[in-house]
Fold each of these.
Amino acid sequence: MKYTYLIVVMLLFFNCKRNSPDEKNGNANKTEDVKQLGSDTLQNDAVVPTYQNIELTDVDKSITIELKQKTLIEKKDEREELQELIINKSYINATKDFTVNFTYPLLNESYKDSHRNFNEFITDHYVNITATEADILESKSLCDSIEAENFREERLIDYKIYNVNDRLVSVLFYKENFYSGAMHPSYTFDCFNFDLNEGVFMTYEDFFVQGSENEVLEILNEKITAKIQSGDMYYDCWEVSSADFLVSKNNFVLNETNIEFYFDDCVMCPSYTGSYSIEIPLVDFMSVLKKYELNPLLL
């Protein structure tokens, strides 16, 4: 009995010795994982965490919202290249109740009389400064909240402009609405495509075949899914619904190689991540483009 007891003790001892290196290696691997995660997070400078299982703090979200908006504002367009065609207009009015800061393009009518069609729509209907200021004041007068009356509203409009084969100008307007007391402004978008030859605005139906919305949406969502899977700043985004796409299907700008659809916050991505737009090569849409000579997208 005594010898049996000694044998059992010795077996347990040698078994522990064999397991110790594995346990040490396991702990080392865990430590390495923690170090790697911390190192990557620091290298990213807390700008856009790429780990889908990390829950962002309010500070993280604040940083990423600012980065997202900065990326939009600094995005390169063709304003300089088109400086002879466009006339850059600006309007600023700062009062105790609001600030209106609008920057928008007009087309040089000395090149073509039909450019007036673009200019009248932008000044009289889209920008419409007088109506905008009246709307702000009316909204404040209708509100019975003392705190709301003390909120100061800021409205900004700016734009990006692109040219396609000297036949078409694409204009993206981005609107920034900001209320005192809010942490960040919100952004909304409107896109217009103007045929320089015909002097008319073009819509989705002028570029794409009738009934192609489902196919275009499928191409768009495939691109979004690919970006989500690659972790390319789309980690909390989602596919665009059919209803949202039908509302926003005219919200796209063009250049000679790509089409870029724009969506307001919470349509494709939350405010703190992703992008306001999804850019796709024109060649991906060849099966749904209208095949007629007036379509400037035909390659």
Amino acid sequence: MIGLYRPGDSLLHRLPAGVKLLLLIVSIVAATVLVRSPIQVGLVGVVVAGLFALARIPFGVAVAQLRPMVWMLLIIAVFQVLITSPARAVVVCGVLLISVALAALVTLTTRVTDLLDTVTRALGPLRRIGVDPERVGLLLALAIRCVPLLAGIVHEVGEARRARGLQWSMTALVTPVLVRALRTADAMGDALAARGVDDE
């Protein structure tokens, strides 16, 4: 899952957290803007796979980062095929998969505390205009936790849907996912409020 740091001494592990975050943003923006065909998706995918190999991330661990996204990607792919074309579906889903893989690679090779410290320091000068770096850091930590949590919910609901023989029912997938996601968000909000996070 995203956020599970794996110790190592590879080049990617040794890069400063700030550099990795900057490269992550640039890479995702570049992939979104420049990748326009399934062939390009494949080429970029090979490069990303090479980065996982460079970081010495086991194949099983790399696959585990992306497995929870399968149902989400299937939903997106269906809509893209219906409103655009199969080639466009491959590009959209491929870029999304690449982006998540790159984000997972950063969190696999960087301690979450280092990431949060980097963001907090970078936003320090913005205190003058009312920005609270600590709250932004908390938001980032929640995002890191919630992405795999939501993907896990989609995966679990998809498994339950298949067990009931409703694998082709979109309602049987979307409705439970929304309900569970909203309940999780409410519980998380209550927990934060109980700890005084929303206090001024």
Amino acid sequence: MSDAPHISVLLDEVVEALGAKPGETIIDGTFGAGGYTRAILATGASVVGFDRDPTVLRFTEGLPADRFRLIQDRFSQMAEHFAPRSVDGVVLDIGVSSMQLDEAERGFSFMRDGPLDMRMSDTGPTAADLVNTLDHTELARILYVYGEEHASRRIASFIIRRREERLFERTLDLAEVIERALGGRKGAKVHPATRSFQGLRIAVNDELGELEAGLDAAERILKPGGRLAVVTFHSLEDRIVKNYLAERAGRTPGGSRHLPQAPTGAPASFQLIANKAIAPGEAELAVNPRARSSKLRAAVRTEAPVWESAA
């Protein structure tokens, strides 16, 4: 297991967006290695971290017990742990962390051999379960919708043909089959299995459903004036956050591909801090190339009630 530090992307921008002060309570909904938490604690605020990954406990060592606690639960369940309008800020860093990618035994990486797992917790079906049991239509749908892989049907056909001979158990085994399906483009700038592995990981962990539920939970528990900061890493996540905040800020007529139809005439429950997403600067990218696709969107909770669709 890797103990290499995970670099929190857009760290300064997140801290600025949250505007945390001494005496305030901020939720770090995706604690990970605690990068955002440590920066927020440095402002004098208290932090409650959420993470469903049991391996993150090692990163809580040394954090002040009087101003920090970790809840081992999904961030979508924040409202089960906090009363409405009771917290001053929420930060969410969506997706898989670099430390998870670097741990071969977690099964997230197509570059390191390990069990085909991909679970952020230790419960539920694994990626191996999906590729070994789903029919062609559902497997292709996951790769296309969640992985944005346009050759999804061809890849699904190759997977099903191979599993009839031998079930998938290892990450590199699956990556090699995907390479063959796409013509074996080894050495390409983007690995041929990138999109397929992304799609499987999102499906295994219900990441988009978690994100939608987490945004609704943040709307419920933030005080008026409380701030929400969300960092995303690919277009599916960013589109959900962008549409959600735009709708809640009254910027769109309602509804989206992922979200319920908005109630007509509902008062804005969020005010956007910036109209556009914030991207990392050249200095950060030079230190952490993995930040290149990250985006930060932030908003302030208004006095308006929770929207009916999120109640």
